[in-house]
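re: that chain from earlier
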Amino acid sequence: MHHVEENKVRDRAYQLWADAGQPEDREQDFWYQAERELAEEDEVDTSREASVINLPPLVPGNIAS
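^ sequence. v structure.
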């Protein structure tokens, strides 16, 4: 699993906790959820290069029907 910056996890966990109505004694739940979400985001390559679709060149006359 990727290492996620602690301050990002803290900010996301706080947001999750606040959105849930600030329940008591669930800090760990929100911390782990924030870690998972941020780790998943880090694994997704959203760069311009990753968005390019490399299709094989078209060969005239070889169209499948």
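The chain is about 50% helix and 0% strand.
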